[in-house]
Amino acid sequence: MKRFFLATVVLFATVALQAQDALLQKYTKMGDVNTVYVSKGMLDQVPLGQFDVPGLNDFVSRIEYMTILVSRGDKAGKEMGNKLPKQLKRLGFEEKLNTMHEKQNIRILQSAKDPTCVVLVVYEKPQATVVSMKGNFEGGIEGLIPTED
Fold first, then answer.
1. Which of 3, 10, 127, 142 matches a 20 to 30 Å C-alpha distance to 102?
2. The pTM is what?
């Protein structure tokens, strides 16, 4: 019974991840979106000490890999900034942060089905940037999000 339960959990997590990947792939194929894949090895080479951001080293050390999508056109930016968060919520993602900072709408969403999946959406009309991350976020990402004093 234990094996059946574990197999079921793995299956649902795999299906959820494939749905998320298919959704992001849809935006990549729009034509006016640049996409970059960043591996753990590439992240390890970034000199994080040059940035004065509290908790950045801890956050980056948890990331296994990430895919970055950046819109070049107004249509893609609008769809990624407005529609993508709603679509992710329908796939079982929970919004952990939704805030405005210097005219940028910043959203962080985490999969309830697979907490290792986190998506960051930054939208400043008409441009949008999406960072889809896979990593060690099972304990939640709330403690990793810096707060302003």
1. 142
2. 0.76
